[in-house]
Amino acid sequence: MKLEGDIAEINVVEQLVEMWRDRFTGAIRFENDGIIKIIYFKDGDVLSASTNDRADSVDEILMRAGKVSREHVKQGLAKRSEKETLGDALLNLGFITRKELTWGRRVQAVGVIRSISEWKAGTYTVVADYLP
Description:
The protein is an alpha+beta fold. The protein contains five helices and five strands, in the order βαβββααααβ. The protein has helices spanning 12-21, 58-64, 70-79, 86-92, 98-117; strands at 4-6, 26-32, 35-42, 45-51, 123-128. A five-stranded antiparallel sheet has the order 1-5-2-3-4, with helices on one face.
C-alpha cells in the first residue's frame, strides 16, 4: 500500500477496501483545496471520521436531523472541555442520547467517504497506528 500520493492516482473505495482486508489500524488523511477529511480505522473497520468541512460536521448532521438546535450547539461549544468533542459535550449536557451521537458519527463517516470518492484532485496520506 502506497503511503501518500495524489487522489487521482487511486480509487478511494478500492483503497478503503484494501485497508479493511489488511486489517489496518490508523488513519488516512485526504486534503483538497484546504478541506481536510480523515478516516480512522481499527483492525480494518472504520472507527470514525473527522473533517474541517462544516457540511460534514456531527453538529450540522444532528441539526439537519432535528436532534439539536443551533442554541444547543452554541451551549455545547461554550461548555465543552478542551479535550472533549462537541458531540460528547452535547451528550454530556443531555441534549442528545448516546444512540443519537453514534448515529450522527456513522452518518458523518459515510458522508466523508462519499464526498472524498467524488474528489478529482487533492492528496492523501496513510498513517499507521494513529487513532483519535
